């Protein structure tokens, strides 16, 4: 591998190691701050180094295609594969960018081996990115094997391995389209028949066709998730095929299960019991009894197996218990106990383990448990499962909440008339009467404003280089993702409005999400305040954002003045120039931020469950 690429990989390791320089128990407050500054400076150096490496060794080919040759192809491919450590997220974003580029170059060259290789690698990264906008691109990548099946016997042996993996992944990709579930299963069966053909097997006797068949049949069972949504339930043939696939997996040798990418035997059992229920082999009550036994943690409490049992299978248990409850067989106490058990498990999970959990599992639990929780319980659960599990976000939302509360406090003092018409308030006297309620509401809204970042943490945690355009577009989805989660939770509209609109311009002329209009929303003044608080904290943060230059509050005031009436509320910007307001904000972004940062590091340094209700 090129020495520059090796330097890039070494820098990625350094970034991971840097976290340990301040996330240590027993440090004095002054030591923590000093180490944070040192780490931030080191991250900045790595950031600049990595940008130069990418500029010299990758971006140059985008600007001048004549520099690109076969040696460049192989070097970039090796580098991109080294970055595709999906469990540790070495650098999935750049891996995707390079594989996308190489895929295009392979298609242009007509080299069938390169085409199959890069169709697989490109598709695999897309699969892990798991973004709905990548669906067509994802399907197209894995479909390449189907389209070139007549060329199978002319491929290199290593390419044939990727070809066969692409066949299995093609089924996963097309299975996302619910309208074609019957066609999709036919495709899966034809793929399995291909692997069983004498001609294919005799060519590569050492290929693990048995494992690929197992994984494909396990993936057929993913239709159970669609059964839960009410799809396919009138199609007996589909249900029986899912049941047959689940039975095959369930009764397979355990060594086969352990030889797959997701060696979680309890999940195979879950699929079998659920498929048995839909195929009318067992009752709903029997299904719940089996899932109750499966949904407890093992001795290694936070292993992949245990997390799958407690969170994924436990959430499914809640779903089926609620169905049982709806049928008149009361399971209220068991539902509450299951919710409580998963909730406690999440709260007790070490931060180091939590960061490896698939976010979907936590989101699924939240969604399953929402109907059975009070408003305060929902608020605490969402907060504990999202913002308080990611160090930079933890600090940021705390700061935004405090800054928002202080800005609102000043705004009520300076101009209480500004808030008439909101929260059923009809006079300045009522504004003052409800002041504590309003302050508490905006504080909580500040804590939840970035809850959507829970779904894009892999991108906002990358301090090793500039974000790619694709990553930035994904990050821009966090307001809508947060809004949708809070909306499903039936939390007050101030929370949902703040989550959705805090990156929109005051006059709706810019910002994101572009398709939403914030000019006449229900909680406009409160959104404007959180938007301002969000900008203040992000721009003046001297610890958590080494990729951007820290600004002083005076620098910010000039920017706010320039954007008054367009990006920001003119009334709020005028208020920021008051001496008492400037003094309070300066205190918050100075002394208070240091206190919040230190207390957060101490909490995370213990590597134990983070609970902040």
Largest sheet: none
> What portion of the residues fall into strands of 2 or more residues?
under 5%
Mean pLDDT: 87
Low-confidence stretches: none
Helix content: 55-70%
State Rg.
27 Å
Distance between the termini: 49 Å
Q: Count of DSSP E strands?
A: 0
In DSSP terms (H or I, runs of 4 or more residues), the helix count works out at 31
Structural class comes to: mainly alpha
What spatial form do the alpha-carbon principal axes imply? globular
Description:
- Helix 8 (181-196) runs antiparallel to helix 10 (209-220).
- The two termini are 49 Å apart.
- The chain has helices spanning 3-22, 29-63, 70-83, 92-109, 112-129, 135-147, 157-174, 181-196, 198-203, 209-220, 223-228, 236-250, 254-258, 265-278, 284-294, 304-326, 332-348, 351-354, 359-369, 375-385, 391-414, 428-433, 435-448, 457-460, 469-475, 478-488, 493-501, 524-540, 553-563, 570-576, 579-605.
- The mean pLDDT is 87.
- It has 31 helices and no strands.
- It is mostly helical.
- The radius of gyration is 27 Å and the shape is globular.
């Amino acid at each position: 591998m090129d020495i520059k690429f090796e330097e890039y990989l070494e820098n990625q390791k350094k970034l991971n190691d840097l976290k340990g320089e301040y996330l240590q128990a027993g440090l004095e407050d002054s030591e923590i701050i000093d180490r944070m500054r040192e780490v931030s400076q080191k991250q900045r150096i790595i950031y600049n180094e990595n940008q130069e490496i990418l500029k010299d060794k990758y971006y140059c080919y985008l600007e001048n295609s004549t520099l690109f040759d076969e040696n460049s192809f192989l070097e970039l491919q090796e580098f991109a594969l080294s970055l595709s450590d999906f469990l540790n997220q070495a650098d999935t974003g750049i891996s995707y960018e390079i594989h996308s580029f190489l895929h295009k170059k392979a298609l242009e060259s007509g080299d069938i081996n390169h085409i199959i290789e890069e169709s697989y690698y490109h598709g695999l990264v897309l699969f892990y990115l798991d973004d709905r906008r990548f669906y067509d691109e994802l399907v197209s990548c894995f479909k390449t094997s189907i389209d070139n099946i007549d060329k199978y016997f002319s491929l290199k042996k290593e390419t044939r391995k990727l070809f066969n993996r692409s066949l299995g992944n093609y089924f996963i990709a097309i299975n996302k389209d619910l309208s074609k579930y019957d066609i999709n299963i036919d495709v899966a069966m034809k793929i399995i028949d291909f692997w069983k053909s004498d001609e294919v097997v005799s060519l590569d006797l050492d290929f693990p066709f048995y494992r690929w068949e197992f994984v494909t049949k396990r993936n057929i069972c993913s239709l159970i998730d669609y059964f839960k949504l009410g799809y396919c339930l009138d199609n007996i043939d589909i249900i029986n095929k899912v049941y047959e696939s689940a039975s095959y997996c369930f009764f397979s040798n355990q060594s086969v299960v352990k030889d797959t990418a997701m060696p979680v035997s309890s999940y195979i059992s879950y699929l079998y019991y659920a498929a048995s229920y839909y195929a009318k082999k067992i009752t709903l009550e029997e299904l719940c009894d089996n899932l109750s036994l499966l949904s407890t943690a093992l001795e290694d409490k936070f292993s992949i197996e245990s997390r799958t049992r407690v969170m994924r299978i436990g959430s499914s248990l809640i779903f089926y218990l609620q169905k049982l409850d709806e049928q008149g067989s009361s399971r209220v106490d068991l539902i509450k106990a299951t919710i409580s058990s998963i909730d406690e498990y999440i709260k007790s999970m070490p931060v180091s383990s939590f960061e490896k959990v698939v976010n979907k599992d936590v989101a699924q639990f939240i969604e399953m448990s929402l109907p059975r929780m009070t408003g305060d319980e929902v608020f605490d659960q969402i907060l504990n499962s999202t913002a308080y599990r990611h160090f930079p976000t933890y600090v940021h939302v705390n700061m935004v909440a405090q800054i928002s509360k202080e800005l609102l406090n000043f705004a009520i003092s300076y101009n209480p008339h500004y808030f008439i018409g909101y929260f059923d308030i009809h006079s300045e006297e009522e504004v003052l009467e409800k002041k504590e309620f309003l302050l508490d509401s905006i504080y909580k809204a500040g804590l939840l404003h970035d809850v959507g970042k829970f779904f894009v943490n892999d991108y906002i945690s990358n301090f090793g280089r500039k974000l790619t355009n694709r990553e930035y577009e994904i990050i821009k989805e966090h307001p809508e993702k947060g809004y949708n989660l809070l909306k499903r939770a039936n939390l007050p509209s101030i929370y949902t409005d703040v989550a959705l609109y805090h990156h929109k311009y005051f006059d709706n002329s810019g910002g994101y999400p572009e398709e939403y209009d914030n000019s006449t929303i229900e909680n406009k003044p409160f959104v404007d305040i959180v938007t301002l608080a969000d900008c203040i904290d992000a721009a003046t943060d001297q610890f958590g954002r080494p990729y951007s230059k820290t600004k002083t509050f005076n620098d910010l005031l000039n920017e706010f003045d320039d954007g008054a009436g367009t990006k920001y509320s003119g009334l709020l910007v005028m208020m920021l120039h008051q001496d008492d307001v400037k003094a309070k904000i300066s205190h918050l972004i100075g002394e208070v931020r240091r206190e919040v940062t230190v207390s957060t590091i101490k909490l995370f340094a213990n590597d134990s469950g983070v609970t902040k209700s």
